[in-house]
Amino acid sequence: MWRSQAQQPVPFEVAGPPAHSPQTEQPARQTEKEQFALARHQMVQRDLRGRDITDKRVLDVMGRVPRHRFVPAELANEAYDDHPLPIGKGQTISQPYIVALMTQLVGCKPGSRALDIGTGSGYQAAVLAELCKEVYSIEIVRPLADTARKRLAELGYKNIEVRSGDGYRGWPKHAPFDVIIVAAAPDHVPQPLIDQLAPGGRLVIPVGRFFQELLLIEKQKDGTVRRKSVTAVSFVPMTGEARE
Predict the structure, then answer these.
(1) Predicted confidence (pLDDT) per residue in 171-220, tens digit
(2) Which of 24, 43, 119, 135 matches a 20 to 30 Å C-alpha distance to 57?
(3) Among residues 58, 30, 34, which one has the least CA distance to residue 44?
(4) 14 pLDDT higher than 50
């Protein structure tokens, strides 16, 4: 798995040049909200559009979701840099490019049902929620799941359900899924996730123990499966049943 706008004090009136005199005009000071919005825009232009992220819906969402709300407060100023950040409990939030790439690969549609394995901070779930009808997210570390659930609710997401548990076997109750994104690396592709993929659906998952590759798995209408290696990646290992 790879944070208010301060109110400025009203100044006292003082004698001096007229208020609109060129000598006294100063550039408007950016609010924190504006600073983060600018950082998001720059991230999209530099690290996403500037590379191979071409899906307009994905670019729009990445430019809208407040990633700084999904990282520890002391790391907020790094939220839009293109690298992973620690979120506690030995887990990380993926770099923005990887989130965008995985989202682009699965090809979300407005009516899609998505499964997000490895909730972490909830950022990937939020991105998916902007593009899909329903998002079901599983996190094996309960404190992270609880925090992500609360954060997503505070941000107004109503189409995301988060639970704590082992994502290896997916979420059969809500299957099949049109989209599955896995943000932790097993050393093989869990068969239950393939089984829960809808015909025409796509699964993106990092696979490997020491050297990992990002795989795109597509289930054809007839049920056959196609696999494609996309790129080398580095994710935290999948724990739970995947390690047995």
Answers:
(1) 999 999 999 999 999 999 999 999 999 999 999 999 998 889 999 999 99
(2) 119
(3) 58
(4) no
Strand, coil or helix: 144: helix
The domain that holds 83 is classified in CATH as 3.40.50.150
Rounded Cα–Cα distance for residues 40 and 79 (Å): 9
Distance in angstroms (rounded) separating the CA atoms of residues 31 and 75: 18
Strands 160-164 and 197-207: unpaired
Tell me whether residue 18 is in a domain: no
Closest CA to 201 of 221, 186, 230: 221
Active site residue 94: yes
Q: What is the pLDDT of residues 28-73, one digit of tens each?
A: 678 999 999 999 999 999 999 999 999 999 999 999 999 999 999 9
Q: Is 83 helix (H, G, I), strand (E, B) or coil?
A: coil
Residue 4 lies in a domain: no
Three-state DSSP at 232 gives strand
The number of distinct structural domains making up the chain is 1
What Cα–Cα distance (Å) separates residue 111 from each residue in 86, 108, 129?
32, 8, 11
Cis peptide leading into 176, omega within 30 of 0? Answer: yes
**Is 125 domain-assigned?**
yes
Nearest to residue 183, comparing CAs of 196, 174, 191, 193?
A: 193
Show the domain range for 234. Answer: 32-243
Reported pTM: 0.87
List 21, 94, 164, 229, catalytic entry: 94
Q: Is 149 inside a domain boundary?
A: yes
